[in-house]
Amino acid sequence: MRRAECEAQARLERPAIPIVRDDAVVDRHALSAPPDFDNELVVGVEPSKLGIAGYALVFGASVGRCYAAIFITKVSGKDAELEVAARLDLVADRILSHVRVRSVDERAPRRHLVVTPKPSPD
Length: 122
Hints:
By secondary structure, the chain is an alpha+beta fold. The chain contains 3 helices and 4 strands; from the N terminus they run αββββαα. It has one domain. The protein has a 4-stranded antiparallel β-sheet, sandwiched between helices. It starts with a helix and ends in a 15-residue tail after the last helix.
């Protein structure tokens, strides 16, 4: 899969994902998380009906797999720009840049087998 195909698939499944407009983009760069995916982070900010809206989008592709992470925030009132910037910074630097895909062993449910001994014949 390619990143553009993964983005298109995510947008089909989630039409509410913000449309990226070049004039709204404040950051765009490759992201190494999750590992083994070709990822790009796009951060954008634009005015909304209630104040300021911001988003951090990551779309990634690996062999036969897609990855998408979407964060949207909206703030109104005094210092809305600063609050949106702080939220986007936190999400991009402390969350999205540290994502990892769990292995099959980590995803498999852990079931503990309980063996009940047979009563011994007396």
